[in-house]
Amino acid sequence: MKKSATALCALAFALSAAPALAQTAPRAMTAEDLITLKRVVAPTASPDGQWVVFQQTDTDPQSYKRSTGLWRVPAKGGPAQRIADIPDAGENSPAFSPDGTRLYFISDKSGKDQVWFLDLTTPGAAPVRASDFQADVAGFQLSPDGTRLLVWGDVARDCPTLGCDSSGDTSQPGPGTGRHYKTGTGFVRHWDSWETPGNYSRAFAVNLGADGKVSGEAIALDGPVGTLTGDTPSKPMGGGEELAWAADSKSVFFTARQSDAQEPLSTNLDVWHSMLDGKAPHSPTKANLATDTQPHPSPDGKWLAWTAMERPGYESDRLVVHVMNLATHERRALTGSWDRSVSSLAWTPDSRALIVTAEEVLDTPAFRVELSSGKVTRLNLAPKGAREGHIGNVVPLANGAILYTRDGVANPAEVWIAEKGKAPRQLSRANDPQLAALVPLKTERFSFKGAGGTTVWGQVHTPANTEGRLPVLLFVHGGPQGSFNDAWSSRWNPRVFAAQGYAVVSIDFHGSTGYGQAFTDAINQDWGGKPLEDLKLGLEAALAGRPQLDGTKACALGASYGGYMMNWIEGQWPNRFRCLVNHNGVFDSRAMAYSTEELWFNEWEHGGKPYYEAPEAYEKWNPVNHVAKWKTPMLVVLGEKDFRIPYSQGLGAFTALQRKGVEAELLVFPDENHWVLKPKNSLQWHQTVFAWLDRFLKSGN
């Protein structure tokens, strides 16, 4: 880890070098650039509104080792400084104490992830460790009055605090290394890890002493053993948005996912309320058998807001904001008449409205939702003349300003602030010097009449000021309920692909998000129908009127559902593409349904019937049934730790290609899951994919 002085010198050098970079001819973006661009998240503001602290991850350009630290910038603008820089450690998850005297965060300096703080009243003060739990702290939240701390991590269900001598593993011991699971077990593996029976993600409330350190006994939110057995936050993707202190600091609202034999078949998350008295929590959402999550009590203590789905077993149902009067328990669907799915929510300090984010036709803007009426108003958090892009990490401030991150398809996230009556301002500039050295990206949005005459949207990305015709890459997003919208991606990044001399086309086909729930639902039991029609029509619409795009030289690429579509295209859209790239895609729908971990997904997507009772629902759009027609060269990529779409699906596709005599390559990552996360693996992924594309699109054929 770099020292503060070193970091500041590096920043000063970068800023001083920026003009020189601007005078140099820009170069093409590389995979190394994508990997080493800084990752900025988690902005938070001091109570007086004077300072903003954010988390930044840096990647060393030689070793590709990543390090995370905290940076501080004046809210009025100015250079950022590295703070709380603990040698040979990382820092993340910053949070100011309510009185502004301390900055709390998580550090691994002690060998475990623990809560630390920096005394802001003493210049030059060294960071102090506030907790010493036996288990790692996965996350924390300070109570509104600053006297308590909420912490969570993986521990045994019967452990009274965050970590015990016993691991909690209740699996059957044996003479060998085998894992022994019995009938009635829920998940035996989930996302990328085998489950350890008896261990759960659990949250505890502890007191903070006058010295800022944890003191006294911990209180478990899930109550006595036998009351609530589940994961808080939920696994595998849940985080701090699933827990929240009540305004009076006397209780906690949290989301829990019940862990039992039905868990792989259920999307039933519930909001719970713990009075921190050691007794069982209660759930105000228990009657809803679908998802309830993101509990947010209002600052005045009168209301609870959360997001909820309506249909059990469907993970892409619309998330509607609900509110409940905490005194009368009266409740209503605040955004029930708004046909958008809410991604995040935060109260305004006066408790009169919520600031939410939701996908909206290729953007993810922020909206203000009035508590009294449910009226929704889109906020303009982009600079004049710019597209909104992707807004995240929204923090409404006491002075009426809004703190947030903003990113787009051409630029990674940076911290912004929007003050009343003023244009939004960018506060962090972590990536400005590196981006200034690169050829800009040109993006065009377009719409066309897709399947059934419905309006469908897409984007074309090309390197700016490029002459000559460009081969075409068709990106197909995963989900399938997802979007290749105007947002930065560290994995499927249109800018780095365009920089290799390609035009990147993406289509938000039927099933995509940001266009209303009916459009999202349209892919149900129709995986290979309307979406493929949209891709065909969309590619032709992108080529029409754009002579720079050479449609005779095209390859298609996709992961997850996008990988499924590569396998489907093999048998349904012959001779259109010179090559395909299939990353972790579904090859055999029935085998996938038997071997994935989240069973609800396939049962919903293919009609809700068991595969052995209604096999026709799984065979209708099954790529394995059309292998006889396969002829397009394909690169298959898979991760051995992918339990969502098990790697045997990729092996099956590769075997089919080989037996058919179709040119194919296989790239296997033994240490990656459904994604490619490690820097060196990402570099190898890009090098392999670029070489495959160049072979078919730049060989002069």
Report what the structure shows.
It is a single chain. With 701 residues, this protein is of the alpha+beta class. The protein has a domain at 438-697: 3-Layer(aba) Sandwich (Rossmann fold), CATH 3.40.50. It contains twelve helices and 38 strands. The strands form nine sheets. The chain has an eight-stranded mixed beta sheet with strand order 31-32-34-33-35-36-37-38, with helices on both faces. Helix 4 (494-498) links the parallel strand 33 (470-476) and strand 34 (503-508). The longest helix is centred in the N-terminal third of the chain and has 20 residues, at 4-23. It is globular, with a radius of gyration of 26 Å. The two termini are 49 Å apart. 49% of the residues are buried.
Q: Share of helix among residues? A: 10-25%
The backbone outline, from C-alpha atoms, is globular
If you consult CATH, what is the topology of the domain at 438-697?
A: Rossmann fold
CATH C-level class of the domain at 438-697: Alpha Beta
Number of strands: 38
Largest sheet: 8 strands, mixed
* CATH level 4 superfamily of the domain at 438-697: Alpha/Beta hydrolase fold, catalytic domain
Mean pLDDT rating? 94
Strand order of the largest sheet: 31-32-34-33-35-36-37-38
Query: How much beta, percentage-wise?
Result: 25-35%
Total helical elements? 12
